[in-house]
Amino acid sequence: MKQFVYEIKIESTQLRLKTEEELRDQTEKLKKRSQKEELSKIIPQWFALVQEISNRKLGLKHFDTQLLAGVHLHQGKIVEMKTGEGKTLASTLPVSLNALLKKGVHVVTVNDYLAERDQKWMGKIYTELGLSVGLVKSTSSVIEKKKSYFSDITYVTNSEVVFDYLRDSSASHLTEVVQRPFSFCVIDEIDSILIDEARTPLILSTVSKNLNKNKLFLAKFIANWLEKDVHFQVDEKRRDINLTESGYKKAKEKLGKNTLYDSNDPWILEILNALKAQYIFKLNKDYIVLNNKILIVDEFTGRIMEDRRWSLGIHEAIEAKENVLIGGGTKTKSSITYQNFFTLYPKLAGMTGTGKTAEKEFQDIYKLEVVVLPTAKPMIRKDFSDLVYQTELAKWKAVLNKTKECFSKGQPILIGTASVEKSEFLSELFKISKIPHQILNAKPENVARESEIVAQAGERYAVTIATNMAGRGTDIILGGNTSFKVKQKLREILIENKNNEISLKKEEEHLLKKIFTEYETREQLELDLSNLPYSLETCQESLRLFYNSLYEEISKSWIKENSEVKSLGGLFVLGTERHETRRIDNQLRGRAGRQGDPGNSQFYVSLEDELMKIFGGENIRRWVEYLVQDKDIPLESNLLTSSLENAQKKVENYNYDLRKNVFQYDEILNVQRKELFQARNEILRDEISEDFFFRYCESFLDEQILSFIKKTSNNYFFKLQSELQKWFDSYSIDQLKTESKETPKNLYSELWISNDLRFAQSNLYQQGFLQSNRSILYLLIIDIYWTEHLERMTYIRETINWRAYGQQNPLMEYNVEAFQSFKLMFDQIRSAMIYYFLNNPLNY
Ligand code: ADP
Ligand code: MG
Q: Does the pLDDT value for residue 710 go beyond 60?
């Protein structure tokens, strides 16, 4: 690897002397080579070129560690680099290199703000390299999205790229499809996407007319009636509920049924869901109620996840519990987990500040290797061992005191909380104590603002409360972030008209006037302003000059501020609760000690914390109680910290098992989904020929004849059978028997004739109607039965543990049933196709 960095250095000494024109020639030369040679062959030259262009365009020259990161990413690995080490810039190397293949590279970020920031910022490098860069936002139109996905490089958020995929897979016309086949994807903050969010699938819903609300309410009623620990048991760790023998009996009795598993009218799912809604999912923690809707709260960021629904009927059960509009009237049209979505890419890579502790999971599930890169400058942050208090009250008192202490000195402090609720509580506490502070709001529309708040968390006297990963992706600069400050000041002057309070220089007064004449509309001004500093090159000259002038002033004072904050010890990060995984704790700690800065981190925990209560075990409690008599005095020891970490490891393993379980169960559905989407796609692209249709019908006829001969009745085809009966009636059984062994040519020709008649008939009403609408009808039929299949799968999934009771392997059982259900779906699709196309000509 040293050799490789050396090679780049040699290249770059030559490039440094070249003119822009010559650099462009070099770009062209390498592009040509990329068409004939393997990409890895041109890595040193290409990386050196990107480095040089970045230096000229952004003033950032890739560090050696970033060059190394580039190679690992190109090889499809996960790179761990600490916060602030420059992952955004590192990714430009493999991204631009792979974009040379012209198959599209996706760069996935956790929110719209980061996608836009990185697209605009890094876009300057790509544009100079002659590569097109697109940005997909949730608000983009279909045409904009298509254009962005067809760019060489596309910046997009994790949820948008998945929903676009799901929407594409249920498009009824080719013009609605926005993505092209996947090639290479780099995921930023990969652990947050592939691990933290892996348990809730993304669901594309469709309006449902036949959701059975009565059933949900009856189930809720029965759930209220059942007694905890008598009729059911709650498994807090697994967030699961089981009915006991007597609970099962009671529920049956109440319903007046013999079984809860009647396949025509199953109840088990509804009852269990009603119980889970009641005993596991908590209002204002797991979800909130807003505008008559249940919105999921992300357990890690505290952010509200719009557009997401819990699967397997849980969401509806919670809606019934809270008496809000049920189902939004929806049912699942299509769904996929992040796990299965991202494995669709032939090549996948990722970046994070905290990947190592989840290494095994990345390896086992995604076959991704984690490489840890050293920091460019040595890390000097001090992580103190935890302070353990007996009671929560004592803990919060201590948090308040520590905050006061930092604030009075002027040392910035960032306080991480595990939930929105706790952060609001803390904010109240600070208000009473007259400590000025910022609290990070979890609403999606505030993400950009959130970044600005986090960016200023390193200023003197800054007190910032944040739910755990709020503002992820923005680094905290000691002494404050100059460009954000300039932006804020500009906003105050230009938008909020606070000029009186701000003294401006003469030239600035002049520029200010010019801005208002140069900008014709306020909207345009606001837009350019909100995109600063990335819009500097494209905004009006007056705004640019004004920005630069303010920037110069503010950066002068920043140098002084920066060194003062450093002398105070840098940023103090205080965690108020250990999280379920060490990774999230590390994420929080990593906010301090950026790029060799000084800083500290410490967790204040109590025996009453959730994690301790569920996983800490009696030992820790007894031990602490024994050692500490006075409740306000904490215990601080490495031993205790490590036993806490052991508790966390236990939770990590639990959660890993759960995710693995989700993954394993989703696997068969994933195979089916791929198969179905593939077929759909062929139909969409009109690759389905007349032949295909006949083959379909003929094989269906074969099967029907066989089953007819065997005289096995088949419920699903009763409608069709009566139609077929008419045909069969003209044959004697003997005739059929002999013919079916060969090819039942007579039947086939009837089929062909019917088809011709059908076309002729529809042409009477509208010329060419069938030809042009056949694909749409196929797709419609497919979607109806696919949705039904998904519903059956949900039921099978949720009840398999019960029904396979005593069996060794419920997963195997599940797979068998999943296969049968899928087969049934295909049979239904085929019979419906024949039905629509041959036997029911005028009925639409
Ligand atoms: P990460 O995503 O790893 O936390 P970012 O990509 O947000 O870090 O970068 C953090 C900061 O480091 C940015 O302000 C960026 O300008 C700066 N930076 C990154 N790479 C370099 C470099 N090679 N030279 C100078 N500054 C850099
Ligand atoms: Mg980042």
A: no
